[in-house]
Amino acid sequence: MSDNEEQQEPKVEDSNAPINIKVLSSTGEEVFFKIKKNTKLTKLQGAYANKVGKDVNNIRFLYDGERINEDDTPASLGMIWFFSHRALQDDGDAIDVMVQQVGGSDDKKNDALCHVDCDLPSERGEFIYITSYSLGFNLKHNSTSTLPTDLNSHMAAARRAILVVAGIGNGSGTGASSARLFAKNGYQVALLARNADYLKKLADEINADGGQAEGFPVKEYSFDILHDTFSAIKKRFSDGDIRVGIYNAGFGVWKPFLDVTPEDLQKSLDSNITGAFAFSREIILALKQLPPDENRVKGTLIFTGATASTRGNVVTSAFASGKFALRALSQSLAKEFGKEDIHINLDSKVAHSIIDGGIITDRVRERRNDPEWEANEAVRLAPESIAKSYLYLAQQDRSAWTWELDLRPAHEKW
To answer: Boundaries of each Ubiquitin-like domain copy (predicted)?
Structure first.
């Protein structure tokens, strides 16, 4: 040191200064917390449960592969040491989150890991990508441990989950609302529809809100076009896996039987039958290749049905024929692929028919021009509420699967 250089006093580190902690779920959703070093991590556990809407009693935290106990703090677990080596990093330390499935007596068998990927520095100042698991082994920085043979299946669970939704209308209905909600819950979202402008508008909205979405315009829902589209989706979201598919496309024909044209019938069949078959094929082929997620489920396929899925009416001969077929397809797939841990669901919601109620979308508002109806949530379906039901279906564990879900407003006559 030269005579002109000022000698600096060593900085005294606050023993209870806050540090940053990142929690990353198996769907890729990151949640960040700032917590003091001597604060019990049970407080963070409660905050995380509240953030993600889970029961705190069913959540367990792990750090470096070990379960965090009631009295553990960042200081007691040595998070301070890691944090002090990342002075130039914002990430802080990362914690594994374990969501405990309710039911059963074997605690280990009923624990499902939502593991965390994190960067930790080595002694030489390098940053090394590691993943810690609570499945009988740990990988620590600078480790040369031999990986277990089933590592690939657990690594896959750390990849982002992708939702593919077909049919978004003008962005005000069920498909668009589902896309928004799934994106907020950490899913990457692939949007399929015929109108490229509506696709771009919705994708831009989701991305501006912090989500990740991309629109994929399709001329029609044919086998060849959907096959090429799904290839494009996998290429675009190469860091994720398709976990949920929602087939929300449809074509409605409400005419007396003798007024239905061959073109009307063909459009109904193309959308409600051919398109549904082609979409189902691509989703199921993608799901069959995946390991189960934290709920022991490979993925979920949801069909949007209607009242016409279960009964016809005086002007629904063409429409009901397509929806009856869609319901039969979903039931057949549920029975065939349920044993492979693929969840198939038909949402049979009361919609489209004024007598049976309707979904409040921009087009319905314009057609009805009825402010009193719009204001009364007991007589019409909100697409945002339907989307919540879809998210619930995607999160069900194998002990209680829904095949057919019937949604209607509280004051609906049925």
So the answer is: 17-79
Non-local CB neighbours of 300 within 8 Å, separated by 6+ positions: 243, 244, 245, 342, 343, 344, 345, 393, 394, 396
Using the Cα atoms of residue 304, residue 309, residue 310 and residue 313 in order, give the sign of their dihedral: positive
pLDDT digits (tens, 9 = 90+) for 45-82: 777 777 777 777 776 676 665 677 878 887 787 664 33
First CA to last CA across the chain, in angstroms?
88
Domain boundaries, the chain: 18-155, 159-405
- Residue scoring higher pLDDT (129 or 96): 96
**Range 159-405 classified under CATH 3.40.980.10:** no
**3-state SS assignment for residue 163:** strand
Topology of domain 18-155 in CATH is: Ubiquitin-like (UB roll) (3.10.20)
| The residue to which tokens 């934290």 are assigned | 294
Question: What's the pTM value of the predicted model, to 2 decimals?
Answer: 0.62
C-alpha to C-alpha distance for 261 and 263, rounded to whole angstroms: 5
List of residues 6+ apart from 260 with CB closer than 8 A:
253, 317, 318
Element (H, E) at 310: none
Residue type, 161: A
Instruction: Give the integer Cα–Cα distance in Å for 294 and 385.
Output: 25
